[in-house]
């Protein structure tokens, strides 16, 4: 999206919501829904429209883990790091992921505290789909499938 288009879209989103009480969170959600992340250009525009400092806006964005400051990658893998998954091999999976994934590759790896699949540990979520009782071999299969996708 061209810079002018991005700014026009930001201004439209902000203008439609800035007078709402507690507008910052709904605006951040709307901006991320539109762009897939919170562009840097949004921070000063939000600060001015909501009469808050840029530091306040940045603080809210960084506090909530679901807000992204960069465009999302093609795939998101969330590995459970809670006690049950740890006891059943999540450390081995994390180590494997550290070596198998490129830092700037198409898969973003995020640790999460619990996916609610403790009875089927270790568990991970790949693009919103839960995978349980994941072994290192199974993890490598999942990653290989991602590489085959266009």
From TrEMBL:
Cofactor: how and how many bound: Binds 1 [2Fe-2S] cluster.
Highest taxon, organism lineage: Bacteria
UniProt cross-references to Pfam families, sorted A to Z: 2Fe-2S_thioredx (PF01257)
Binding site for [2Fe-2S] cluster: 80, 85, 114, 118
GO molecular function: 2 iron, 2 sulfur cluster binding; metal ion binding; oxidoreductase activity
Keywords: 2Fe-2S, Iron, Iron-sulfur, Metal-binding
Metal-binding listed as a keyword: yes
Record's keyword annotation contains Hydrolase: no
Co-factor requirement: [2Fe-2S] cluster
Gene3D superfamilies for the chain: Glutaredoxin (3.40.30.10), NADH-quinone oxidoreductase subunit E (1.10.10.1590)
InterPro entries according to UniProt: NADP_DH_HndA-like (IPR028431), NuoE-like (IPR002023), NuoE_N (IPR041921), Thioredoxin-like_sf (IPR036249)
Protein family according to the UniProt entry: Belongs to the complex I 24 kDa subunit family.
Name this polypeptide is given: NAD(P)H-dependent oxidoreductase subunit E
């Amino acid at each position: 999206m061209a810079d002018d288009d991005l700014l026009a879209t930001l201004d439209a989103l902000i203008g439609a919501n800035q007078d709402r009480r507690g507008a910052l969170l709904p605006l951040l959600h709307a901006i991320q829904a539109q762009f897939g992340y919170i562009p840097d250009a949004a921070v000063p525009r939000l600060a001015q429209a909501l009469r808050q400092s840029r530091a306040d806006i940045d603080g809210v964005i960084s506090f909530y883990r679901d807000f992204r400051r960069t465009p999302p990658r093609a795939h998101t893998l969330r590995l459970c790091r809670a006690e049950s998954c740890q006891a059943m091999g999540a450390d081995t999976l994390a180590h494997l992921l550290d070596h198998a994934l490129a830092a700037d590759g198409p898969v973003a790896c995020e640790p999460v505290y619990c996916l609610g699949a403790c009875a089927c540990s270790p568990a991970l979520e790949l693009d919103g789909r839960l995978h349980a009782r994941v072994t290192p071999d199974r993890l490598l299969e999942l990653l290989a499938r991602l590489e085959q996708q266009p």
